[in-house]
Amino acid sequence: MNESKLCTIELIEQFLAGTLEISVTKHDDEASLYQHITRVLKRFDFPRCSKYERGVLLKYLRFTTGYSRAQITRLVKAWHTNRLANIPLAKRYTAPVEPFKRKYTEGDVRLLVEMDRANEDVCGPSIVHLLKRAYEYYGDKRYERISNLSVSHLYNLRKSTGYQRQRTKITKTRPVGIPIGIRKAPSPSGRAGFVRIDSVHQGDFDGEKGVYHITCVDSVSQWQVEACVEGISEVFLMPVLELIMEQLPFVLQGFHSDNGSEYINSRVAKMLEKLRIEQTKSRPRHSNDNGLAESKNNSVVRKHMGYSHIPRRHAEAINQFYQQTFNSWLNLHRPCLYPTDIVSPKGKVVKRYKHADVKTPLECLVLLNGRDLVIFKTDTMLQELILESKQQTDLQAAKQMSLAKSKLFASFTRSRKKS
């Protein structure tokens, strides 16, 4: 740069305003740019300049070098610090000898893909919990490194090229809103044994009713039992309700439902009264009273059984799938999120779902048993459930469930072709 004429601040201002013709030749060499900065700072005696003059010189250096304001500030500071020792302004940083090492390898990404595919893309905290259980609970050494994966970085891995190459399509769960009328909320007080129940219809087709799924879930432990019936009349429903109660490992103390006639009737009330079980129904304008069962309808039933019409004749096959495979996987191997009540500064109780509170229903029952908040049907029930959970890993159970579900839906197709 030929800048011999720029010897005063006024000329610098004229140059920046574009009224002074000066020939400018920019260099890509950083050493030449550093020499140019040094010459300008020495020529105008930068340390003795006023604040205004310093601002003009910094603007001039930004224009002539192309550096950012932050970079010019750093270079001027370095020159000012080393000028008395006659240390020239020079490039002080170098490229790293080795590139940044990856913490999680391609093998870890494959393990994550396998776990996501088997569990059909549940939420991040649940997958992190499954990865941790695979190493700590089942002793699978392959998961040693990825067992420490954070929930936030899990979503980064899901966005990575290696993951997307193996999982080309990720869909979110479709939300479902079911308006209900409510009367009275259950009050478990932290104890297991107070269940909430609801039914899900599998659609109509050409005037033919589909099957009905019955969702029964404990309010505290989230222990869940699924069943399927041809219809919701008393003829079909009463045997299934008895079957659901037999599958619960703890003593049933409360039975909560909405105001549907399938549960609010004399036969159900008589059966519950005989067993000394408290029956409650929902309150008006309190839609959260049965919200847990409604959320399970969405995140479990609709996710795995879909929205398409399933004829009533398949109810028995679906019920066998639930009893033999699905309910065991739900309670022994599928993590759930448990809320923590926090009192806000305004005195309102707010529920927060922390990553540390993710656990399976069986793990929750173990904690409740330690605090005497659950009554099991037999003294050995808890030990039997723990032994059953260790017979196969979470991943193996998920794969077995997916295989059984595929065979179930394949039987629907074969039946349709025969008809």
Q: In summary, what is this structure?
A:
With 419 residues, the chain is of the alpha/beta class. The protein has helices spanning 9-17, 30-43, 51-65, 69-82, 106-118, 124-136, 151-159, 161-166, 234-247, 266-274, 291-305, 315-332, 361-370, 381-389, 394-418, and strands at 194-201, 204-205, 208-209, 212-218, 224-229, 254-257, 278-281, 336-343, 349-359.
Please give a structural write-up.
- This protein has 419 residues and is an alpha/beta fold.
- Helix content is 46%, strand content 12%.
- The radius of gyration is 34 Å and the shape is elongated.
- The protein starts with 8 loop residues before the first helix and ends with a helix.
- The model is unreliable at 175-182 (pLDDT under 50).
What's the arrangement of secondary structure elements?
Elements: H1 9-17, H2 30-43, H3 51-65, H4 69-82, H5 106-118, H6 124-136, H7 151-159, H8 161-166, E1 194-201, E2 204-205, E3 208-209, E4 212-218, E5 224-229, H9 234-247, E6 254-257, H10 266-274, E7 278-281, H11 291-305, H12 315-332, E8 336-343, E9 349-359, H13 361-370, H14 381-389, H15 394-418
Parallel strand pairs: 1-6, 6-7
Antiparallel strand pairs: 1-4, 2-3, 4-5, 8-9
